[in-house]
TrEMBL record, chain A:
Annotated residues for binding of molybdate: 49, 77, 180, 198
Domain of life: Bacteria
Example of a GO MF term: molybdate ion binding
Segment forming the signal sequence: 1-24
Protein name as catalogued: Molybdate ABC transporter substrate-binding protein
Gene: modA
Organism lineage string: Bacteria, Bacillati, Actinomycetota, Actinomycetes, Micromonosporales
PANTHER family: MOLYBDATE-BINDING PERIPLASMIC PROTEIN, SULFATE-BINDING PROTEIN
Single biological process term from Gene Ontology: molybdate ion transport
SUPFAM superfamilies to which the protein is assigned, alphabetical: Periplasmic binding protein-like II
UniProt keyword annotations, A-Z: Metal-binding, Molybdenum, Signal
Automatic annotation (TrEMBL), chain B:
Keywords: Cell membrane, Membrane, Molybdenum, Sulfate transport, Transmembrane, Transmembrane helix, Transport
Record family assignment: Belongs to the binding-protein-dependent transport system permease family. CysTW subfamily.
Membrane topology: Multi-pass membrane protein
UniProt domain ABC transmembrane type-1: residue ranges: 60-263
Recorded GO CC terms: plasma membrane
Record's subunit section: The complex is composed of two ATP-binding proteins (CysA), two transmembrane proteins (CysT and CysW) and a solute-binding protein (CysP).
Protein name: Molybdenum transport system permease
Lineage of the organism: Bacteria, Bacillati, Actinomycetota, Actinomycetes, Micromonosporales
Protein purpose: Part of the ABC transporter complex CysAWTP (TC 3.A.1.6.1) involved in sulfate/thiosulfate import. Probably responsible for the translocation of the substrate across the membrane. Part of the binding-protein-dependent transport system for molybdenum; probably responsible for the translocation of the substrate across the membrane.
Signal peptide: none
MF (Gene Ontology): ABC-type sulfate transporter activity; molybdate ion transmembrane transporter activity
InterPro entries noted in UniProt: MetI-like, MetI-like_sf, ModB_ABC, NifC_ABC_porter, Sulph_transpt2
Amino acid sequence: MSGRATRTVVAVLVAALTVTGCGAGDDRASGGAGDGRVTGAVTVFAAASLTESFTRIGKDFEAANPGSTVTLNFAGSSALANQINQGAPADVFASAAPANMTTVTEAGNADGAPNVFARNQLVIAVPRGNPRQVTGLADLSRPGVKVALCANQVPCGAAARTALDSAGVALTPVTLEQDVKGALAKVKLGEVDAALVYRTDARAAHADVTGVEFPESARAVNDYPILALKDAPNPTGARAFVAYVRSTPAQAVLAEAGFQTP
Amino acid sequence: MTQVRDHTAPRRRGRVPAALLVPAGLGLLFLVLPLAGLVIRAPWTTLPQRLTEPGALTALRLSVQTATLATVLCLLLGVPLAWMLARVEFPGRRLVRALVTVPLVLPPVVGGVALLLVFGRRGLLGGWLDATFGITLPFTTAGVVLAESFVAMPFLVIAVEGALRAADHRYEEAAATLGASRWTTFTHVTLPLVAPGLAAGAVLCWARALGEFGATITFAGNYPGRTQTMPLAVYLALETDLESAIVLSLVLLVVSVGILVALRDRWMTSA
C-alpha cells in the first residue's frame, strides 16, 4: 500500500519535472523522495514496553519530517517477530530482547545488522507507598508476600529468573504472567504485593505503583535492538526512523522514560 | 422429542440449489481450512515426545477438570435462570435477559478484571470472603472455574431458554391441572421435555469453558498445575516455540472433538 504510494509520488515527481521543468504544481511531489527526504507512511513494529516512549518519538519524527506519518504497532516482541516472518508489511522492528531480533535476522528479513538503542532493568513494583516495606529481593520470599513474575518464555521473565538466581532467592510466585503489563496490572489491582517489572513500566505507572531498585538487576539487563526490514514498503523511511531513534532528541525521550541509553 | 427428529430429518428430496450449496461450501471451508493449516504444520516426527511432556498433560487435565466443573456450576445456576426468563413474568425481564448476555460481548480480559474488582483481595466481596472464611479466589483453581463459568454461562442460558420457549406448554399445563406443584412439574415434565436443548447448551458451555483464555489469565493468573489451562499453555508456548504451540492446540482439538462426538452420539440423538 505505502510502497505503491511512494512509487506514485516518484512517478508524479518525474512527470512534473519532465513537463514543467520544475515542481510548481504538486506540493507532495516537490517535497518528494528524490532528494533523500522522508515522505509517506513508516510502519514501526515495537515491543509493548516501548509504548509510551515510541508514541512520543513517532510524533517528533513526523514533526521533523513533514509529509511523513508514523504508524506504530505495539505487542510482545515474539508476537511481532512472528508477524514479520509471516510477511507483515512493516518497515522497522524494535525488539525488547536480542533473541526475538535473531528470529527475524535468521529468517533473512533484516536490512543490515541490528543496533542496540536502549537498555532496560528490572525493579520491584509495589503498591504506591510500599505498604509491605519491600526493600530488596529477599523480602519477596517472606511468607504471605504474594509475587507476580513474568513467565520464563518472555524477556521480563527470563531477566527475573536471572536476577533471582544471582541473588540466591528462591520464591514461588502466585502467577507467571504472559507479559510485563500483566504483572504490573496485578500490582495496580492490589492482587499481589510485588512484581518484577521493567523500570520503565513502573515509572509509567507511578500514580499507582512505586518501583524499588535492587542491585541484582544489574546482572539481568535487557538490550533493545532496532533495525530496518528488508521488505520494507518504505525503505527510505525505515532507515531514517532507525537513525532518528539513535539521535540525541529520541535518546532523551527514552532516558526520561527510564531506559538506559548506550 | 419427535419434533426434534422431524426438524433434522431431510423432508424434501431434490436438487440442492446452488445459491445455498456454494455459500455453504465456502462457509465450511472457511471454518475447516485453519484447522487443516494446524494439521499440515504440525511437527509429526517429534509429536510423541512433545505429547508426553509432563507440562502438556498437566495443563490438559486441568483444562478438562475445570471446564467440567464450570459446566456443572453453570447447570446449577443457569438452568433455573433460563426457566425464570422463559416461564415467569416479572418486571424488567427484558433487561435481565440483556444482562445475561453481557459476558458474550464483553472482551474476556475485561471480564477477568471485573471479576477481580468483585472477588479480588480488595474486591467488593473478595475482602469479606477472605476476612470471614479465609477464602481467596484469584490465583486458585477455583478461580479458573469461576472465570470459565462467567464466560460460558450465557451459552447455556440462551440455549436452555430457547428450548423452553419452543417446548409445548400444554404438557406443563396438564401436569398442573393434575395437581402437580410447580417444582414437580419442573423436574418431572419440563426438564425431560427440554433435555436435548439442555444437553446442547451444556456441550456448548463446556466447549467455551475449555477454550477460555482472557478471563482466566486475568482473574486466576498462570501457574502450572494450579491455574495454567491448555489455552494459557498454548499462548506461552507461542512465545518461544511455534511447533510446541501447534501440538498443544492439536491435543486440545482432538480431545474436545472426541468428547463432543461421544456426547452427541450418547445423548443428543438418543434423548
